[in-house]
Design goal:
Length: about 375
């Protein structure tokens, strides 16, 4: 078997790596996309000090799970008022980076509904215009800074759109753990579990290879050890750095494999039950581990290197880890009946991400 691994993102990691923005954006006009609390945390002023006059536009009202109801006006205002910007700088969690990815894909008309129509076809396209994207995550979990994917939600219609084009790969990713020091415990856990899901999903995946496995196994080991410690010591710089690096490794792993069944299930849990993404894609991990085991010799070998030879012990370990972080692991815990859960799993297996799961054909 030969393996291929490709990731085009210029990745900068380390404490105070945000300072590199000054050189990276030289002679460019920059639009900032960030979250509402960023200004109160002093982050907008800090970025303005770093960028000076090149920062010409600021969007700071990004909400969790970017929804078409809000994105439409933001998108059309951006292309009307900041169309001459060279670069979009996303500073925040996955929602800020996903919003920025949607913004950089310009339509001929400048209308957001034209973008939705293109996405609804499910086919790749070359946008009429595009911008350069720099992604600086403020949480350890999204992986979006080293992948091309973004999710756009339509809660009113109970739909989601998946955006992934050549231009939605960030040009540069800046992973500065100092940006993560103020993240509260709940978000630290939720985003950390998102990273764990990314890593595990890249293992029980038909697209896995030894290179993606190397990133994934290292990320899983780090998260299982580090996340509970970080939850009890949120201001610890070393633990923040370890989690930031683990999340980056998980992002690199699934940047080549995509995600699988747990994420496919999560979309329904978020749309129908409002479950935050990090919890929605992680509470089923013990269940999906059981469904994955025994379908592929190479994948079983990798799973054994992570969890040992005993499937029941492996599931128990993963379940107890989640419980220790106050994450419930049964569908019933979230108001989903056994029949609804089974229907949701079968539906998820038919989705694009579900088809990446190594047990999808057997199911």
């Amino acid at each position: 078997m030969t393996a291929r691994f490709h990731n085009p993102v210029d990745t900068r990691f380390g404490w105070n790596s945000l300072l590199e923005l000054t050189d990276i954006t030289e002679h460019q006009k920059v639009a900032l996309v960030t979250f509402p609390e960023a200004r109160g945390l002093g982050l907008v002023d800090r970025l303005r000090d770093l960028l000076g006059d090149r920062l010409v536009y600021v969007i700071e009202d990004v909400q969790p799970n970017p929804d078409v109801a809000q994105l439409r006006a933001t998108y059309e205002r951006f292309w009307r008022d900041a169309g001459d910007c060279h670069t979009v700088l996303a500073v925040g969690g996955g929602s800020a980076i996903d919003t920025a990815k949607a913004l950089i894909v310009g339509t001929e008309s400048g209308r957001f509904d034209e973008l939705l129509a293109l996405l609804a076809t499910g086919k790749p396209f070359v946008p009429a215009h595009s911008k350069r994207l720099i992604a600086a995550p403020t949480t350890a979990g999204t992986g979006s800074e080293v992948t091309p994917w973004a999710t756009i939600w339509d809660a009113a219609s109970q739909k989601k759109y998946s955006l992934h084009l050549d231009c939605t790969w960030p040009t540069v990713a800046i992973i500065d753990p100092q940006l993560m020091l103020t993240v509260p415990a709940g978000v630290t856990v939720s985003t950390g579990l998102d990273a764990l899901s990314h890593a595990l999903e890249s293992v029980w995946n038909i697209n896995a290879n030894p290179i993606s496995d190397t990133f994934a196994m290292s990320a899983i080991a780090d998260i299982l050890e580090c996340l509970p410690l970080l939850r009890r010591d949120l201001s610890n710089p070393e633990l923040r750095s370890r989690m930031a690096l683990a999340a980056l490794k998980a992002g690199l792993a699934f940047s080549n494999t995509k995600t699988a069944l747990a994420h496919s299930i999560s979309y329904e849990m978020t749309l129908r039950y409002g479950l935050p993404h990090g919890i929605a894609c992680s509470f089923t991990l013990p269940l999906v581990l059981g469904l994955a085991w025994g379908h592929d010799e190479a994948r079983d070998s990798t799973l054994r290197r992570i969890f040992g030879d005993d499937l029941q012990k492996a599931q128990s370990r993963l379940r107890e880890f989640l419980h220790s972080l106050d994450v419930k692991t049964e569908f019933a815990d979230y108001g989903v009946t056994a029949q609804e859960a089974e229907e949701m799993i079968q539906f998820a297996l038919q989705g694009a991400r579900g088809k990446n799961f190594i047990g999808s054909k057997a199911a």
